[in-house]
Write a structure and sequence with these properties.
A: mainly beta; six-stranded mixed sheet; 48% strand; B: 114 residues; mainly beta; seven-stranded mixed sheet; four-stranded antiparallel sheet; 11 strands
């Protein structure tokens, strides 16, 4: 079936250091799915961080980037220099093109230390 | 700006109790969703709707009913609450099926069933 895997439940990074949060996906759809990163700040609901609907393309927002890699079926989230305000839970998500559903990963808690 | 409002923010009930979670969106979106979020799990879809009077079953519907009374209002009902339903519940809305469209989330309702 369709699924998303985030291997890290929590990532701790010092402020100004680089970040990578891993995401891999699996789909039964013939067509390439749409891929998303959502973020949930403390006390708030999830909000879209970035999305990419074309394989091979890169999405970016607020200094974060993710590249849709169809060969490795990955969509890792990266940032060159994190800030304390980036502390949040990050969710990778997949929406197949052959149905009306979206599938979320388990989420990765990012803790940025000052 | 898109707005999804959930109430209450927190709810405590006892096993066998009757609970209604409310969600209102002012986005004029057709689709509304109820998810639950548990530690170690991604968001799991309970029910969703594509318009007033419509209801679709999600991935984890057992023990839940839902009702979409207007385009704006979507309710989640737990008629005989159980401790396994202790969770963080999110409501969301979107213009379409979520394939490439953005989901807009409420801030969540934390439900505890004792």
């Amino acid at each position: 079936g369709d699924s998303v895997t985030q291997t890290e439940g929590q990532v701790t990074v010092s402020e100004s250091k680089s970040l990578i949060i891993n995401c891999t996906y699996s789909t039964t759809s013939i067509a390439y799915p749409n891929l998303f990163w959502y973020v949930r700040y403390p006390g708030e609901g999830l909000q879209l961080l970035l999305k990419v609907i074309t394989a091979g393309q890169k999405g970016s927002s607020r200094g974060f980037e993710a590249t849709y890699n169809k060969e490795t079926t990955s969509f890792h989230l990266q940032k060159a220099s994190v800030q304390e305000s980036d502390s949040a839970v990050y969710y990778c998500a997949l929406a197949p093109n052959n149905n009306n559903r979206i599938f979320f990963g388990d989420g990765t808690q990012l803790v940025v230390k000052p | 700006e898109a707005a999804v409002t959930q109430s209450p923010r927190n709810k405590v009930t006892v096993t066998g109790g009757n609970v209604t979670l409310s969600c209102r969106q002012t986005n004029s979106h057709n689709y509304m969703y109820w998810y639950r979020q548990d530690t170690g799990h991604g968001l799991r879809l309970i029910h969703y709707s594509y318009g007033a009077g419509n209801l679709q079953i999600g991935d984890v519907p057992d023990g839940y009913k839902a009702t979409r009374t207007t385009q704006e209002d979507f309710f989640l009902l737990l008629e005989l609450a159980s401790p396994s339903q202790t969770s963080l519940y999110f409501c969301a809305s979107s213009t379409g099926t979520g394939g490439a469209e953005t989901l807009y989330f409420g801030s969540g309702t934390r439900l505890t069933v004792l």
